[in-house]
Amino acid sequence: METGKGTLYGVSVGPGDPELMTVKAVRVLGRCRVIAAPVTAGEKTLARDIAAGAVDLSGKEFIALELPMTRDRAALAAGRRAAAARLEAVLDTGRDAAMLNLGDVSIYSTFAGLMELLQQDGYPVVMIPGVPSFCAAAAALGIGLTQTNLPLHILPAGGMPVAEALKLSGTKVLMKTGSAMPEVRRALREAGLLERAQLVRSCGLPDEKICRSLADAGDDSGYFTTIIVKEQEEA
Asked: pTM for the whole thing?
């Protein structure tokens, strides 16, 4: 049904390498005149910088979305509502807008929370999938993530008890390790899994670092750090 409102596109830009952006993502960004992206501390716009490596963004209107990085539910809700209002103001003019998202829009994404708000308010929303950071990290390490009879677990290292997560069977992917690195290292050692853990920091970005042993990684590895704990299938 025709609403007269523009469409919000959630565009995945992948983990960092512009060449990992999909053809569809590039096409949508080329067509949309309004581009939005979260802004981190210091007014850094990593998602826009990545997208600019694949699409000419000059001349487009840019909306910087200030979304708090906090676990305070009230602050998160207020930030999302404010960001949603800015996007809706554009869509109300009939223009489409593209919101950039690191990795894939369906995995621990900033976009997902805003999408729910806009859909509740009656705005059309389309998701453009992309390469998840943990898939790119596995490729950088040259390892497979799954095997025939073993599951794959994608876990936020800073958002759940790591020791409990490591008890799960199959390969474990610990995302957004960042400040949780000391706890993660300790839990891996106690579980006897330290030697199976490999790490990629800032995958696809200029400061990418690959550590096949956590002994080569410091406790300040940063927010964009993914640890893969590979479990071997028994014969």
From this structure: 0.89
